[in-house]
Amino acid sequence: MELTVLMLFCVALLSCVVANVSILYALGGGLLLFLVYAKIKRFTWRELGSMVFSGIRTVGGILFVFLLIGVLTAVWRASGTLPVIITLAMNLVQPHLMLLLAFLLNCVVSVLTGTAFGTAATMGVICMTMANSMGINPVLTGGAILSGVFFGDRCSPVSTSALLVSKITHTNLFTNIQHMLRTAVLPFVLACGAYGAAGLVLSAGVSHVDVAAIFSREFSLQWYLMIPALVMLLLAVAKVDVKIAMGISILLAAVFSYFFQGVGLADLLREVVLGYHAQTAEVGQLLNGGGILSMVNVAAIVCLSSSYAGIFARTDLLKGIKRSIARMESVVGDFAAMLVTSIVAGMVSCNQTLDIMLTDQLCGDSVDRRDERQREMKALNLEDSAVVMCPLIPWSIAGAVPLASVGAPQLSILAACFLYLLPLCRLGSQLWRRLGRSAGLSFASRNSSLTSTTHDISL
After folding, report:
1. Considering only CA atoms, which of 130, 105, 106 is closest in space to residue 117?
2. How many domains does the chain have?
3. Which of 401, 331, 457 shows the shortest CA–CA distance to 72?
4. DSSP assignment of 184-250, as one string?
């Protein structure tokens, strides 16, 4: 019965994706499906309500961050912060390097700040606007940004996902980071090569737009308008809570909007809610976006998907799957089994935190918790599977929020090279070791057979 319920939910999700219908319909249907299952298991309505709201309460902080991201991306536009940064950067960046720099810059900022969402809302927005002004394909730019923001989200010392993995596996954070950096080298180099090559190919048809002339029609472009962004970055590097850092940056940008750009309070409030909308079409093509409403869809996804957590914790919905995963591990190996599990868990959970926790719960039986090496290997497997695969699921907020923040199409997940290359390199490494062991055993067996035959002849 449990497998049937989960399969029905997955079919609903895939149907929405294929039909290009909002995933919220499938998530709402999934909630009803799981509630019916729990009711069949004889839980009371009161208990069901408690399950649902216990899951939603756990993401209250995340919902507040979404609100701040929407406001931040609007006031940075209205204050002139983004136009000034982009105008200055356009003099330094060549079109053929834009994709590579989008990846590298977001890697650096995400390592410093430890947050994929915060990086996307700051450096990601800057890179996307610059790329749009150069006429670079937004799908590729969005993929480069998504790869970069999750590079640091995976291995930064201040990353919440890295801290979560360390906590649930009972391992040392900095030892985990050393292992993560080792497995990231080859995928990182390959991703740089892919974005560099794509930039060289695309730059042939790209023209350099005079963004300073375009932005000057609506903005006063002064260097000090960068202060809100610089303050945000410095506070994040200083490990100030991201919500506080974003709040201070928002206040500064709002003050700058009023005094330096002449934006009235009523207009500023409207832009905070609805997003920034330029007066001219040329500026709007480069700069329109942001606002609280831009985050409503992903906030709804978070609320619905997080409500599942309480139901999963109180019922036996995942019990049968756990047994199947144990059998799969014995056939394909621990990492391959965890990779498959993380994809399925990410499809059901729709967010990175729950994906990590579900994958850990489902793949935990084969690990001896007294063995430190096994615990460290499990932590690395989680980082190379659940952490990077969840953003590639179209209806997961892990990828939807960064892409919505920068205004990139959902199709950009196909261009997130680093997120694909990391697990593929791990699988290739695991397969190589298995083949090596098989070859070694085969050689030992033949050598043993030859020795036995020689011994028989000598007798």
Report:
1. 106
2. 1
3. 401
4. HHHHHHHHHHHHHHHHHHHGGG-----HHHHHTTT----GGGGHHHHHHHHHHHTT--HHHHHHHHH
Whether the Cβ atoms of residue 250 and residue 68 lie closer than 8 Å to each other: yes
Identity (one letter) of the amino acid at 85?
Answer: I
End-to-end CA distance of the chain: 64
Q: Find out whether 83 and 287 touch, Cβ atoms under 8 Å.
A: yes
Query: Which residues is 289 bridged to in the sheet?
Result: 276
The single-letter DSSP state of residue 114 is -
- The DSSP secondary-structure symbol of 360 reads H
Cα dihedral sign for 222, 117, 278, 137?
positive
* Structure token digits, residue 105: 């810059």
Cβ distance 137 to 105 under 8 Å? no
Give a yes or no: residue 442 inside a domain. Answer: no
The one-letter amino acid at 243: K
Any domain includes 15: no
Query: What is the distance between the alpha carbons of residues 37 and 45, in angstroms, rounded to a whole number?
Result: 12
In a domain, 292, yes or no: yes
pTM for the model stands at: 0.71
Within a domain: 5: no
Residue 232: give the domain boundaries. 24-38+45-204+218-428
Q: How far apart are CA 256 and CA 80, in angstroms?
A: 8
pLDDT in tens, the chain (459 residues): 677 787 788 788 778 767 777 778 888 888 888 888 888 888 888 888 888 887 777 666 767 877 887 888 889 888 988 888 878 777 777 888 889 999 998 998 788 667 788 788 778 888 888 888 888 899 999 999 999 999 988 888 767 788 778 877 888 888 888 899 999 999 999 999 999 999 888 765 555 667 778 888 888 888 899 899 888 878 877 777 778 888 998 999 999 999 998 888 999 999 999 988 888 887 887 778 778 887 787 778 777 777 776 777 677 777 667 777 777 777 777 888 899 888 888 877 777 877 888 888 787 666 666 678 888 898 899 999 999 999 998 878 889 889 988 889 989 999 999 999 999 999 998 888 767 766 665 545 555 544 444 444 343
Cβ-proximal residues to 371 (8 Å cutoff; 6+ apart), any chain = none
Place of tokens 């890295």: 162
Other C-beta atoms closer than 10 Å to the C-beta of 341 total 26
